[in-house]
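Predict structure. Chain length: 267.
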Amino acid sequence: MRVNIEELPTKNWHHFLRLRDLHQILTSIDTAGVNCVLELGAGDGIQTDALRKIFPVVVPVDIAPSGDVEGMVIADVAKLPFEDASFDLIFSSNLLEHVENLDAAFSEMKRVLAPGGVMIHSMPTSVWKFSQLILRPVASIFRITRSIMPLPPVTQPRAQQGSHGMLEGLTPTKRSIAKKIVGTLIPTIHGVSGNHVTELLHFRPRWWHRRFENSGFAVDYSLPLYFHSPYDLLPYRFLKLRDFLSRNGMASVYAFVLRDLRNTSCD
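Prediction complete.
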């Protein structure tokens, strides 16, 4: 589905991508009757603000938030401090690939989701993972060139550890010279899968479908979202091409809509 990008941020590529994906998701689902929303991995609150323009109650949660967000609850997704059946909708963006104990997290989500509720989770795909690997040298050349040439400064802020939101709020650790040299060619592991090969396998939409179903969720449908180039390469460039690629099997992010078949809502 095409998304109207005219009202999206023009000076923060990370926010542009997150809001663009959120708009596509929200225009693709039925939100009638949704009052209480739980946002997991809220980060700096950019999506929280957008959700609050649509839904009466939005509760943001993050274990290490990267911004001052009104009503932020500091909590682990595997141990949520809420009553049973508290939310009509649970939403997360680029979070689950960073969760160590998915079984515990899914159990908690199922507990706090109201009967008849909906869960929406978006995650990077193997397309994004493959591009992360092959584009690392290109990104390093861009960075080195910018450091030695008097190019215009980059004014737009970005996520601390990549455009797919590693755990928000983490402080980058210092690396040795050897690790920095290796890092110019080989990126770090994005999530918690352990190695790049495993991530290539686990980031496939098919893998997530099985994972959700094995955890007792019914996958209503999935949505290819957009082509996000890693390392914030060429922000705001080739937008029509990105849209074309995403609609033709090259989406960097997929959203999964999961439904609980019970039929009540939170008050």
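Summary: Confidence is low (pLDDT under 50) at residues 154-170, 263-267.
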